[in-house]
Amino acid sequence: MRRLTVLVAALFMLTANVWAQDSKGIYNKYSDNEEVSAVYISAAMFKLMGKVPSMDVGGGSMDIGSIIKNLDCMYILDSDDPIVSKNIKEDVSKYISKYKFELLMEIKDKGEVVRIYTTGSEKTVTQFIMTAAEADAFTLICLDGTMSRAELEKLIAKATQDMD
Amino acid sequence: MKRLEDIDRLSALDLDRIASDESIKVPVTLKRDIAVTARALEMASKEEEEIVEEKRSATHTRYRKILKMISYPAAAVAVITIGMGLSFQDSVSSPKDTFDDPRMAYVQMEQVFGFISEKMNAGMDIANAAEPVLEKTINALK
Known about the structure:
Order of helices and strands of chain B: HHHH
Radius of gyration of chain A: 18 Å
Oligomer: heterodimer
Strand order of the largest sheet of chain A: 1-4-8-7-6-5
Number of helices of chain B: 4
Helix content of chain A: 40-55%
Shape of chain A: globular
Strand content of chain B: under 5%
Distance between the termini of chain B: 145 Å
Strand content of chain A: 35-45%
Number of strands of chain A: 8
Low-confidence stretches of chain A: 14-21
Structural class of chain A: alpha+beta
Structural class of chain B: mainly alpha
Radius of gyration of chain B: 52 Å
Distance between the termini of chain A: 69 Å
Largest sheet of chain B: none
Largest interface: A-B, 55 and 41 residues
Shape of chain B: rod-shaped
Low-confidence stretches of chain B: none
Number of strands of chain B: 0
Helix content of chain B: over 70%
């Protein structure tokens, strides 16, 4: 009987761990940590933000209204603490490999590794994740929603054109 | 000796007359026999009660054992279910909005897209810097 209880408890811990690795689970896990700066914007807030005409991105003006209106949430986790950064990075890595994200871009520059991942279908992106990892720091930006892949690519292309 | 049927046939007056007839002697052992019979009846009754109680106790013990067997896993399942529920709720519940003011959220979004753009531009810088080298290599190979 005790063995059964221990087995069930182990299964519970395993399941809880899997849940904790989910996207919002990662945010909930670290957002209250003193070593972490956390930002969360909900779908309701995006609606309140109303129609966003344009934003200055990369030195140019960009219409992100079409992207924003379809967002369910956006959150950021940022930490300069080596241990916390390492833990967030590990959880994000597990999450990304679990849900088979596509690596859109990887930039390695001056000891910083920036990776942009997306997941969804051919036409839509359901999640956009950007990670920026340094030796002792880690930043996670996550956009949840149903974004048009074409719109997102246009947005990225515009950002890169503006720097030319 | 009178039989039961003979006694049944007797009237109340006859019975009263016989009872008051002091010529009939009461057997000496009657009192003792009655006491023995009463004691035997009492013992039989007690034994019967004990058997019933034993049976009840055995059933009770069996139920208690079954209950014990069920109660531990049931308690474990209950604790686990509550734990899983809390854990699940904690992991998937929507976090609280950081900003109350939509304008602040707007500014934050601006910064986020600016940050994404900045990082992507840095990547494009590296790619652009490598472009002449790549072109030179392609030309040399031609």
